[in-house]
Write a structure and sequence with these properties.
The structure holds 2 protein chains of 2 kinds.
Chain A: H1 10-38, H2 58-65, H3 67-100, H4 106-118, H5 121-135, H6 141-165, H7 170-177, H8 182-211, H9 214-218, H10 228-234, H11 245-265, H12 267-276
Chain B: H1 2-43, E1 46-47, H2 50-53, E2 60-61, H3 65-71, H4 74-107, H5 110-125, H6 128-138, H7 145-150, H8 161-189, H9 193-201, H10 206-234, H11 238-243, H12 256-266, H13 270-297
Antiparallel strand pairs in B: 1-2
Helix pairs in contact in B: 4-5, 4-8, 4-10, 5-8, 6-8, 8-10, 9-10, 10-13, 12-13
Classes of the chains: A mainly alpha, B mainly alpha.
Chain lengths: ~280, ~300
């Protein structure tokens, strides 16, 4: 490993330590602040204290009592899971072809999938709105799953083909020479090697679908298919006389914490996935 | 000769298998991307609004009318300039913070680095809507922690055009620096330790080593994260939409992405919205081609 070197002195250590602390605060503080808000009671919500003076779970109880939020949560989970599964399966097939096989138009294909990843999603919103209305897909699960697959596929193909290129494919041949059937060679040798890449890609794709706001706000109109980010932006509290801040904070925590935990738990893999497209080790 | 024949046949078979594997992905992309893009261009050539959608009025073909109207609209040029300026600030900020942290990560102990990565990835993974809401609440005029600390309770951070842009930029940098940090950290780690040691043996100072040895080796990576940041920050939608309430008072915090959305959905001018979409796509295509060329120049395999 190469450090940007130099001798360690105490003053230097302190300086780095302070810098470290500032960064951690910049990155973590906003999330802690909203968590704190979500635990504050209605009376102390606006006191500006970092640590709540009165702890309460009312905000959470309130949002889970509304069908508006619970339905959106189910929609989000279902839509993101289905879109991720399809995108990863199709993406794995395509990436396998790109990494293993030689065929005309290969370079073009990878270039095109990169182009799609850059494509401004907002451009597709008007035509998709139009097409989905005429097909009866507007404000349905498939109405969101389909565009998610479109934009997740290039991401999946790009990340997966970077992973697949690193797999020592000769092992497959070696296994076959040792008497394994093609099925066994794939199951015992290739699948375990490919699994981490596929899994990482699935995480990245799931996060993309879960976080999307643009498609979700333009291609839905009711609770039937509204996902959590959109529900959050429409949150007005359980009655119009109630300040929605506490509920919004609680809802934001509910959609953020699972993703953050997910990411922290699989930190290494995600870092590998993020850098696979850009760095060759 | 015979070997040549065998090879060609093998390759052709390879190709057929490859396309079989590619078929699902290609079909999905053709149907779900190709057709909508065709529709996008088509819609942009018509006067297509609420009345036409509900069937109340006939479609009127405008040709390039929407584009002409768009390019002669002073608001479009303001929004374009704002988009470029906003993206530039976000990209610079992201790169600065990301690079500094990548270097910092190589300097600290393992536990501190883990902490840094965890915090950064937490910010990165926060859904954009939640992240925007979080920052709004942090800077809220009445109960925001920032006003509490600064003793400026009641000060609105989203009223003034430039302060609002600054706040959104801070949020965008917050959720995009981790990508730069993680990528560059991996890049620095990949530099052989002997190279740095050799520079130190030759008497180069830390600063000199960083500038003359590490920076040139990192240049290809820096280029990649820069262009990816440009593309990403050019397309910011959620943060502006949520934090400035759909583009600010009288649309003064609009960027192209939100502008296209507002024209299409809020103003129900789908034709005009589509035209903005086409213009945006063209701009991003230009940037992407620059990216591809840069990749090729650095010898990066696609």
């Amino acid at each position: 490993m190469a450090g940007v070197g130099g001798a360690e002195t105490t003053a230097r250590k302190v300086r780095w330590g302070v810098l470290n602390a500032v960064v951690v605060i910049y990155a973590l503080f906003p999330v802690l602040w909203i968590a704190s808000l979500s635990f504050k009671s209605a009376a102390t919500l606006t006191d500006g204290n970092f640590v709540p003076r009165e702890w309460t779970l009312d905000n959470y109880a309130n949002i889970f009592a509304t069908t508006e939020f619970v339905r959106a949560l189910l929609n989000s989970i279902g839509i993101a899971l289905i879109a991720t599964t399809i995108a990863v399966v199709f993406g794995t097939m395509a990436a396998y072809a790109i990494a293993r096989l030689d065929f005309p138009g290969k370079k073009l294909l990878v270039g095109v999938s990169l182009l799609i990843a850059m494509f401004p999603q907002v451009s597709l919103v008007s035509p998709l709105f139009e097409i989905e209305r005429s097909l009866g897909l507007f404000d349905t699960w498939p109405g969101l799953i389909l565009p998610y697959i479109t934009f997740a596929l290039p991401l999946a193909i790009y990340t997966l083909s970077a992973f697949f290129r690193e797999i020592p494919w000769e092992l497959e041949k070696a296994a076959k020479m040792d008497g394994a059937t093609p099925g066994q060679a794939f199951r015992r040798v290739i699948a375990p090697l490919a699994a981490p890449g596929v899994f990482t890609t699935a995480i990245l794709v799931f996060i993309f679908c879960w976080n999307d706001f643009l498609f979700a706000i333009s291609l839905t109109s009711t609770e039937r298919s509204r996902t959590v980010p959109v529900a959050l932006s429409f949150f007005t509290g359980s009655s119009q006389f109630e300040d929605p801040t506490g509920s919004i904070a609680a809802a934001a925590v509910v959609i953020t914490i699972p993703i953050i935990l997910f990411v922290l738990f699989f930190q290494r893999r995600i870092v590998a996935g993020l850098t696979s497209g850009a760095v060759k080790g | 000769m015979s070997q040549q024949v065998v090879r060609t046949r093998f390759r052709r078979g390879d190709g057929r298998v490859a396309y079989a594997y590619l078929a699902p992905a290609l079909l999905v992309l053709a149907g779900l991307l190709g057709y909508p893009i065709y529709q996008l261009v088509l819609i942009s050539l018509f006067d297509y609004g609420q009345e036409q959608v509900s069937g109340g009025a006939a479609l009127e073909f405008l040709g390039l009318g929407n584009y002409r109207a768009l390019l002669s609209d002073s608001q479009f040029w303001t929004v374009l300039a704002q988009t470029v300026g906003f993206a530039a600030v976000c990209v610079l900020g992201t790169l600065l913070v990301g690079t500094a942290l990548a270097v910092l990560s190589t300097r600290v102990r393992t536990w501190a680095r883990t902490l840094l990565f965890l915090a950064a990835l937490g910010a990165w993974a926060t859904p954009a809507v939640a992240g925007s809401t979080i920052w709004l609440f942090l800077f809220d005029a009445n109960f925001g922690f920032v006003n509490e600390v600064l003793g400026t309770t009641g000060f609105s951070w989203t009223y003034d055009r430039w302060i609002a842009f600054g706040l959104v930029a801070a949020q965008v940098i917050w959720c995009s620096f981790p990508f730069v940090m993680v990528t560059l950290y991996a890049g620095i780690k990949a530099i052989p330790v002997e190279v740095v040691e050799a520079a130190a043996l030759d008497g180069a100072s830390t600063w000199r080593t960083a500038r003359s040895v590490i920076l040139p080796l990192l240049r290809p990576l820096l280029l990649i994260v820069t262009i990816q940041s440009i593309i990403w920050d050019f397309k910011v939608f959620t943060q502006i939409y949520v934090m400035t309430n759909g583009g600010g008072i009288a649309g003064r915090n609009l960027v192209l992405n939100v502008y296209a959305y507002q024209q299409a959905f809020a103003a129900s001018q789908y034709g005009m919205g589509a035209a903005i979409g086409v213009v945006m796509t063209a701009l991003l295509l230009l940037i992407t081609f620059g990216y591809l060329r840069a990749l090729r120049r650095t010898g990066e395999e696609l």
